[in-house]
Amino acid sequence: MHILFDEAGKLLTGRLLSEAESSLQVELESGKRVKVKAVNALLRFEKPAPAALMSAATELSTDMDLALAYEFAPEDEFGFADLAREYFSSGASTAEQVAALLCLQGAPHYFRRAGKGRYKKAPADILAQALAGIEKKKQLQVQIEAWAAELASGTCPEPVRQQLYKILFKPDKNAPEYKAVVDAARSSHTAPLTLLQNAGAIRSAYQFHWQRFLFDQFPKGTGFPALQAPVITDELPLATVQAFSIDDSHTTEIDDALSLQGLGSGSVTLGIHIAAPGLAIAPESAIDQVARHRLSTVYMPGHKITMLPDEVVQAYTLMAGRDCPAVSLYVTFEEATLAITDTRTVLEQVPIAQNLRHDQLDTVITEAWLSGEAPASNAVPEIAALQPTLAFIFTLARHLKAQREVVRGKPENFNRPDYTFRLEGKTGDEPVGDETVVIGTRQRGAPLDLMVAEAMILANSTWGNWLNDCGVPGIYRSQASMAPGVKVRMGTKAQPHAGIGVKSYAWSTSPLRRYVDMVNQWQIIACARHGKTAALAAPFKPKDANLFSIISAFDAAYTAYNGFQNGMERYWTLKHLQQSGTTELTATLVKDNLVRADSLPLVLPVMGTEGLPRGAHVRIKLGEIDDITLDVHGTVIERLDLPVDEAAMEGAGEDDEEGEDEELSSPLALAIDVNEGDGTEPAAQPPEATDPAGHSA
Predict the structure, then answer these.
(1) Phi and psi (nearest 5°) for 648?
(2) What is the pTM of this model?
(3) β-pair type (340-357, 417-424)
(4) Residues 6 or more apart from 165 whose CB is under 8 A from it?
(5) How far apart, in whole angstroms, are the C-alpha atoms of residue 655 and residue 651?
(6) Rounded Cα distance, 460 and 517, in Å
(7) How far apart are CA 314 and CA 533, in angstroms?
(8) Residue 80 and residue 116: Cα distance in Å, rounded?
(9) Over the stretch 484-542, which tens digit does the pLDDT of each residue have?
């Protein structure tokens, strides 16, 4: 005697050995003996043999017409043998009964289980919906297969092209477009990004990077709603200074300006004047909502996406020839010793006399000219008249920097230049990607740079301390120490910033282009208006959940924006190599197999560094450039320096951002996974792309 039984939904057969009241002993075809609950036994039979029975029943069930079986099945609950008698004949054989059982088990949309071997017909309307869904799924699969075939043959279907960035970076893994790419990548054994490139889905490398960023950060576009800059209603006193700003020629959001009073009197007052949108823009207002959504201006060579609409920026920017509302910090110094004797913050209107442009003046306002050792033959009278003021501010800046370095415990090293990018041939508002790029350099720590940097550090640290003294929360940047792995953090508590060498540091000097600075300006304005009672009037109170939300959002956005800026700078650097026909570079080994180019903002992996110490100077031959992946490799062909004393190299580059070199060469992670769901372990894949080189913001 043989038995057919149900074990956890799986049909098994075996020889019946013995039978108790509620259980059976069964020997499977493999020889294994199992105990089976009596309730799970569905059918007893003598012939045919179990293997032959299941083979015959499977073949019969395959030929059964589901629609006909549904029509013949009883309306009430029934067993599989009942269906076999209705469908085949009143004397249905054992094989036909098992075939009916297999048919019922394999068609849950037609028949619902009502117990072991028992079923009930699905309602007609539910069945119709299920069949429509099955048909739709079949048609969708046909479409997926057709798209996959097109992709594999080198053609990109338009629906896939329209979903390109979503497929690669934020996929819906049930979407047919995604499945088509995965299927095509598997069948052609091609990496997804390469597959899409070969199929023509990516028509422009520049647009690929630009549109990917917009998809990720600006899915609704970069346009602004119609907004009008509110008027500042405060009656502000007019400052008795003539202030000047120092920015790049392309800067329209002029946040800061400087002034100097009392030169030669023994007591000198430096004025640091910050544009004051916070006097007019209120928290939760329409303009604030826009700024809080964007959080920062996005920079890239040849273009930028501003945090605020241009008409709003122009209402508050520190434009020359105007009296501009400002939050001013006045710091008084003893002229001889440069010791600080007083600080005060004033809300006022500041006459802006000049907007200096450092890219036009770096060769004029040199250290030699400021010290009087060399004349500036090409200095216009207005600039020449500023020489005593600029000379004192430069001396003061070096003094402030030296004081911070004492706190830091070591000097700040400006051993790498800042790179500038100029696109020649750009005709529209945005680059198209094939413009001629000219890469220039500005040495870090140049006089004008140093003046502005130290003035802003002085303002940000002074205001950070003041907010804390007034009991008003702000958004701070802090670093517990300069030990390896200790990163800069953002928070609401005034804590030391070891990397800068100050007691506390609150970004406050760029309110037109950084939302954190706008928030801190609101808090500073409250302190200026209310003093020690400012905590009661400030927009953000201690432990305000809004502040923590802003910090979290800003951190994420600022990281993404900086990553994109670095990526576009790498794109244009690689474009420069192509345009100039450069095939070899000199570089310095910075870590393991990574080198940094001597004259370009480029970090790349190279072969042939075995046995070379960190800091070795080498010549490398460049490999093929991929402007989609922003990837280029090299090979060391010559060592250019004498052997390096590795002990002397200890500490070199410690001022770099934590992990910067690794980030500049780490692979770009795609969200598409060609191994998912195919039952295989994820295979090691070559990098699809590398994160771009660039400087830290």
Answers:
(1) -70, -20
(2) 0.78
(3) unpaired
(4) 211, 212, 215, 216
(5) 9
(6) 10
(7) 33
(8) 10
(9) 888 999 999 999 999 999 999 999 999 999 999 999 999 999 999 999 899 999 999 98
